[in-house]
Design goal:
- The protein is mostly helical and 367 residues long.
- It has a domain at 22-135.
- The chain has helices at residues 23-40, 42-48, 53-74, 80-95, 99-106, 114-121, 123-130, 135-158, 168-193, 199-223, 225-232, 239-243, 258-284, 291-311, 328-341, 345-357.
- The longest helix is centred in the C-terminal third of the chain and has 27 residues, at 258-284.
- The relative contact order is 0.10.
């Protein structure tokens, strides 16, 4: 079902836009961004479609910029030096957006799926869209994208032969850079753009904004263990968790160590559950009148809870070529259920609890 809202939102602009491209250039850039988001993240595209006006555009731009940095980090075939160089060149585009086209040409050797390569090639269009935002909004996107990209560069340099996370503190630091920063980016945009989110609400949201992003990251890491090792030469499950149970990064996909590996993952699934609880607290702190923002945040929480449920019942992610997904039918059911329960914290908690225990379908009655 379509969730796109067509009525304009009342926004506080804060200050004047940055340097603007022509209307035609802005339109082309927006068309590109809306098309590519549906191909690099279908579920994220669903949420962006419910956000109004410049807020929706700012979140769209922020996500695409973070995805460009992520595509560089994820290219396990490129040398660490090459990836760090490209991340630095990417950050230079914030100082001079004219460098974005040059950057896209320089990054043409990056190996990724076709849609991600198309996004990389369209970096100039994404920066045009960034500069069409109100200046304060663009500064928020820039601040947190810089933090994310610098953190990625740190880890690429730390593990030039492929990321191999060693300890839980290191794991938390990595998740902060690649996901906690996104929680901050979104939370600052809520305050800047939404008249319903006031400074006191922003202060409450800051308490759990990192957990909101990091919970989703941990669940993505858990479901994609095999993919990350086999396609991106990266192992994010901390080595010390595996070694404590007699396994290692080298044997994480070996059937003979599946029981031990499953035990090691229990530490991360518990962390994900704790962060999901904080994510729900984050959601509950969003003012009820900010319905579009609440729905935007609720949908990934529901998808993540459902995915974590399946992870805890599966060993597919510990097998070569395996991963864990929820069905499209459940995704559709959760979108519908989330859409009608967004305004009520009580109903939302029931929905999250129910989803954590069993696959969600249209036949389930509300409390």
């Amino acid at each position: 079902m379509a969730l796109k809202l067509t009525h304009p939102a009342t926004e506080q602009s804060g200050d004047e836009p940055g340097p603007r491209a022509s209307r035609r250039e802005q339109s082309e850039a927006l068309d590109f961004a809306r098309d590519i988001i549906s191909r690099v993240s279908r579920t994220f595209a669903i949420g962006i479609n419910v956000l109004p006006g410049d807020l929706g555009k700012a979140v769209l731009v922020g996500y695409l910029l973070c995805r460009i940095a992520d595509t560089i980090e994820d290219d396990g075939a490129a040398s660490a030096q090459r990836r760090q160089y490209l991340l630095a060149r990417f950050l230079e585009c914030f100082n001079d957006s004219g460098k974005a086209t040059t950057f896209a040409a320089e990054a043409s050797d990056i190996q990724a799926d076709a849609s991600y390569l198309e996004l990389m090639n369209g970096t100039g269009l994404v920066f045009e869209l960034l500069h069409s935002l109100p200046r304060g909004s663009a500064e928020i996107v820039e601040r947190w994208t810089r933090e994310l990209a610098l953190g990625m560069s740190e880890f690429v340099g730390r593990y030039p032969a492929g990321i191999r996370i060693q300890t839980m503190p290191e794991y938390r630091r990595y998740c902060y850079y690649v996901a906690g920063t996104v929680g901050h980016l979104l939370t600052d945009l809520w305050l800047f753009h939404s008249p319903q989110v006031r400074p006191r609400d922003h202060a409450r949201l800051l308490v759990n904004c990192e957990a909101f992003g990091e919970a989703l990251q941990t669940i993505n890491i858990l479901k994609d263990i095999a993919w990350d090792i086999e396609h991106e030469n990266a192992a994010y499950v901390p080595e010390d968790l595996l070694r404590a149970r007699g396994s290692s990064h080298q044997t994480i996909l070996h059937g003979d160590w599946r029981v031990q590996n499953r035990e090691a993952l229990a530490v991360l699934t518990q962390l994900a559950r704790e962060d999901m609880r904080k994510s729900l607290d984050y959601f509950n702190a969003i003012p009820r009148m900010a319905l579009q923002i609440r729905l935007f945040c609720l949908l990934p929480i529901l998808f993540a809870v459902a995915t974590l449920r399946e992870i805890e019942r599966s060993t597919a992610m510990l097998q070569s070529g395996g991963n864990v997904k929820i069905s499209r039918a459940e995704v559709r059911s959760l979108i519908l259920a989330g859409s009608v329960s967004t305004i009520s914290n009580k109903t939302t908690r029931w929905l999250v609890s129910k989803t954590s225990r069993q696959r969600f379908g249209l036949g389930l009655a509300k409390p």
